[in-house]
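Researcher: Quick sanity check before group meeting.
Model: Go ahead. Protein one:
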Amino acid sequence: MPGFISHWWIIGLLIVVLIIFGPGKLPQIGGAVGTAIKEFRKATSELKDEVTKATSSEPQQSSPPPLEPSPKETTEAPKA
């Protein structure tokens, strides 16, 4: 493992956690940690999707609005 964390540090940490919480609480703690990680990943993926959507749908230059009909065309009476 990179850095100062070796196998012995992880084993020692697990032993300390086992002594503090006991074997009965470890499944509950593991489930809570797993749920927290799952929710964190879900929130980060939703945030990533929102940022991607916001940056990809940049406002595009729209075409000029259609011209209104001239007053002559609107005031003409229909021919019979």
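Researcher: Fine. The other one?
Model: Protein two, sequence then structure:
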Amino acid sequence: MNFLFTGKRRGFLLLALMCCLAVPATAQNYPAKPIRLIVGAAAGGGTDFVARLMGNKLTEGLGQQVIVDNRAGAGSSLGYEFGVRSAPDGYTLIMISPSWVINPSLYPLKFDAASDYTPVIQVARGPYILVTHPSLPAKNVKELIALARARPAQIVYGSSGQGAIVHLTTELFLYMAGIQMTHVPYKGGGPAMTDLIAGQIQVVFATSQVGLPQAKAGRLRALAVSTPERIAAEPDLPTIAESGVPGYEVTNWHGLIGPKNLPRPVVERLNSEMNKALKQKETGERLQADGVSPSGGAPEQLFEQIRKEIEQWRQVVTRANIKIN
């Protein structure tokens, strides 16, 4: 009996040793086949653009093809769920946007956005621009707030859809400024901007690549940026925080994650290649043309961003009683 028990025990120890040795070996040879990059949105949008740009850069750095797989639906949740339920082997990655941190408060998710993933890197970040129609008699944020207080719920703002990041960005602004406006959700940012330029609505938080050219052409008036710091493209444009709403901060960002329990050596390889790519001049120029700037850094930075924003947007959704029909 002792002999048999010892033999079994040796077998278990040998199997455990082989499993332990297999992870470094796999990571050392990674990647050995093409990688799938999940995007929870249709082709042609901002997240898709960032995914395809960085997918090409990873292809160059890793020596294996990175294939973008668009899986739109339920505010990106369908694609996210597919990605996080994939094998944690480094061959399925997910490009995420603020919808990752907003969706837990809006949809009955089948995964935990706070823990069912492995952070790799924050790819890019940028501002939203608070723009108004020129007919609105407000030349800056303080004047807009004063006007909204004098006309409760009479000023109309647009968004790219109910529960979208632009909707919540505006609701956070209204709450922190202590004012009310009326919301008109559109099926995308394009229709909202069209109606803003036409004067059908008065206020929109736009991405910089959409809002700034219209402001420079005189069709709109840019009041401030949503980020905590001013942007290089418009250094004279103040932040909302310094314009009468202290502490206000919203960032348009993109991040790369993998399924939970992605091996650390694989994370380090991906993080290293992404950081190299993000430091390239061409990468920076192309991202800036899309209204964001290269970010980079350690996986822990992305983890902290996600942790903080899940709670931030939960509070906004609860206070504003935002529902998805």
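Researcher: One line on it for the slide.
Model: The longest strand covers residues 118-126.
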